[in-house]
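Lecture notes, unit on protein representations.

Consider one protein chain, 144 amino acids long.
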Amino acid sequence: MRKFLPYIFSLVVGSVFGFLLFNSHDIDIPVFKESINATGFQLGVFNSVDLAKEYVKKFPSSIIIADDDVYRVYISVLTNSRCINKMEEYLNNKNIAYYKKDIMINDKGLIKALTNYEKSMLEGNMDTFESINKLIMDSYGGNV
């Protein structure tokens, strides 16, 4: 029995340290990448990021998303069909040319903003709608 005591002791100590180490960190690693389908209101496609950044100055609430070797400028990204219809109405009233495009959103900040704010977009007037859209687009954390 005496020769098994060091092995039992090392197993107990190793188990305690392993338990403490793995439970002390709150690491949440998703198995599948979180993404949603959305409709993007694209204003333009550019080969150069500098040209895209110049164009964004005309529409401060827009964002640039890199797509392979081009840079797409979006003024809005929405998932709710009523919000999409309201955005079409808004852009048509402002005479802003756009192209609707189905896109996959992987940015966690943008996904969270879409789920939190889209319902509020429907309840307010057009100024509120524009402000909430800017808030959603500002939450995009992608780097360009």
